[in-house]
Structures
1.
Amino acid sequence: MSEYPSITSDDKLWSALSYVFAPIVGVIVLLIEEKKARPFIKYHAVQSIAASIAFFIVSVVLSIVTLGFGGLCIPLLWLVFLYWAYKAYQGEFVEIPWLSNFIKGQGWA
């Protein structure tokens, strides 16, 4: 954590909003140079975009496999995103199994 500059309340807010309104706010963050330059915000923005894409794919596959009942998991997935938003607002780096390491390995965050 010492390698990152201090995390401001603005950083926490933008990071939390990246999960609540994923992937829209995440994309907006990456288009704003001032926000993209903040490592904490960029990390959460990229991760929220990747997580929303992954969960969309999982939802589609579950809907196909379960003949439409996979859509019932969408509210549960949104609760997971709210939990991640809470953690980001607390100033924590959210670690999503396999996904966090993937985006770090690609150099995206």
2.
Amino acid sequence: MSGRVEGKIALITGGAQGLGEAAARMLAREGARVAITDVNLEGAQKIAASLNEQRKGSAIAVPHDVTSEGDWVRALNTTEMAFGGLHVLVNNAGIGLTKDLEDITLEEWRRVHAIDLDGVFLGCKLSVALIAKTVKATGLGGSIVNISSISGIIAGHNMAAYNSAKAGVRHLSKSVALYCARKGYGIRSNSVHPVFIATPILDPLVERFGKQEAYAKLARQVPLGKIGEPDDIAYAVLYLASDESKFVTGAELKVDGGISAQ
């Protein structure tokens, strides 16, 4: 362990699998204590138990629906009670929707935005006071890392709801960055924009075409000729969570194999 986030406390939403799990493992490995939150409490508990086997007291699991303001308050309070504060919030929880514009129901549109955008807003709104207090007490920098998507920058013909929500996350992150800077909170806010990553969000495509063909179809769209791995995003989260990025705020970090360069 090189300790790039030694002494920091992080909360990661959607931490039971995929990008959230990878981020939780990465931050814990680099010295942070982590609160793993998810609607899938059993999954979050398994990840927390695994981390605690490696370093006792490094992780807790918290049940958390990111669309619920009450759940956010409880998750933040639980984290503060367990670890004494919060330095890093990773807003990772999200869902996808690939569907033609005319076929998207209003209910589907609202659900995607509720989880992918409203949940990020609630996290930012409700966490900044606790992060600012912890930063002041410890002298370690605060950071909000919002997981958007390359789909928040590049649109797709059959991804209207997802494009809209993830684009919202991108711009919300910038607004939060400016707000925290003006308030002098010592909190930076940035967004991460992955392309296709080998996580459960690709399961619908895998079920349709099989894993090998599905991944190959996606890889053909990426200049580097492959899809990403969860740790590709976890390393980006680690950089933004650490004080190595102390002069980076309001930025968007694309981890996309070059797709947005075309």
